[in-house]
């Protein structure tokens, strides 16, 4: 998958650095999975729109790239991401509950389809809600739909999926506020692993968001890293979501 597609579809999170950073507590007393899940969802993420300016560094075994990203979100409805290099828009993605649209300036290509390409790369089925959860710092999946075993690892509460499938998922939470610290998706049969981690959290207008996002992916010994910094964020403003594919671009299909 093209590096701009990965950056556009995965640069989906931000925080305000002007507020004090939350310090993670240490998990000492074992809790039930139901209690951990309840406490995690009690951390509210109430907003109507979100505007983000961020910077991202992409690296794999062959190349390294620094870009900036502008993200506009209308909660539960639409996400627009614009990737820029040296101030020039290089790619855009428009994401709705029904489809993913994308185009890139280099090569003059565009994509229109569902979540299958990104789901295949990330190693888990994706939909709009899961992408939005990743943006706002909630667990990727609905934790209330699956049974989990509970342990303490690296002073974090760990929930591990009990389902007997080829895909194993684990979620790690801070002890004092039950914010998610990282989540892991592992498919041993496909030699595929993805870890999404949140280095720290901060509060802005009574909404707690991660202050950064790191994605480490391994697939058949090929490593990809996306490290994102968050520079500006505003909530509940009137936003527009302009998207149109330039004339002459060629449609691509990803199996």
Protein traits:
single chain; 255 residues; mainly beta; 14-stranded mixed sheet; three-stranded antiparallel sheet; 4 helices; 17 strands; 45% strand
Word description of this protein:
The structure is a single chain. The strands form two sheets. The protein has a 14-stranded mixed β-sheet with strand order 8-9-10-11-12-15-16-2-3-4-5-6-7-17, covered by helices on one side. The chain has a three-stranded antiparallel β-sheet with strand order 1-13-14, with no helix packed on it. The radius of gyration is 18 Å and the shape is globular. About 4% of the residues have low confidence. The protein has four helices and 17 strands. It starts with a helix and ends with a strand. It is mainly β.
Task: Determine Rg (CA atoms, Å).
Answer: 18 Å
Label the overall shape: globular
Task: Profile the largest sheet.
Answer: 14 strands, mixed
The chain-level structural class is mainly beta
Helix content: 10-25%
Strand residue content? over 45%
Number of strands: 17
The multimeric state of the shown protein is single chain
Strand order of the largest sheet: 8-9-10-11-12-15-16-2-3-4-5-6-7-17
List the helices and strands and how they pair.
Elements: H1 3-10, E1 21-22, H2 33-41, E2 49-60, E3 64-74, E4 78-85, E5 88-95, E6 100-104, E7 109-113, H3 116-122, H4 128-136, E8 148-153, E9 156-161, E10 167-173, E11 180-187, E12 192-197, E13 201-204, E14 207-210, E15 212-219, E16 222-235, E17 250-251
Parallel strand pairs: 7-17
Antiparallel strand pairs: 1-13, 2-3, 2-16, 3-4, 4-5, 5-6, 6-7, 8-9, 9-10, 10-11, 11-12, 12-15, 13-14, 15-16
């Amino acid at each position: 998958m093209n590096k701009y597609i990965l950056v556009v579809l995965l640069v989906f999170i931000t925080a305000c650095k002007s507020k004090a950073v939350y310090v993670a507590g240490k998990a000492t007393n074992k809790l039930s999975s139901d209690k951990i899940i309840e406490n995690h969802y009690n951390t509210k993420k109430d907003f109507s729109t979100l505007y983000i300016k961020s910077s991202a560094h992409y690296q794999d075994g062959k190349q390294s790239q620094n870009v900036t990203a502008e993200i506009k979100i209308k909660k539960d409805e639409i996400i627009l991401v614009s990737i820029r290099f040296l101030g020039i828009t290089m790619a855009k993605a428009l994401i709705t509950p029904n489809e993913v649209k994308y185009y890139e300036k280099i090569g003059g290509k565009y994509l229109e389809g569902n979540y299958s390409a990104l789901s295949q790369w990330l190693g888990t089925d994706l939909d709009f809600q899961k992408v939005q959860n990743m943006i706002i710092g909630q667990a990727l999946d609905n934790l209330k739909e699956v049974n989990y075993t509970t342990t303490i690892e690296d002073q974090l509460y760990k929930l591990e999926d009990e389902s007997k499938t080829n895909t194993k998922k684990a979620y790690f939470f801070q002890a004092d506020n039950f914010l998610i610290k990282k989540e892991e998706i592992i498919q041993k049969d496909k030699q595929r692993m993805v870890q999404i981690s949140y280095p720290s959290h901060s509060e802005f207008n009574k909404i707690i968001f991660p202050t950064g996002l790191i994605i480490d992916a391994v697939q058949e010994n090929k490593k990809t890293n996306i490290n994102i910094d968050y520079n500006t964020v505003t909530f509940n403003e009137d936003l527009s979501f302009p998207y149109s594919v330039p004339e002459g671009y060629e449609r691509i299909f990803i199996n």
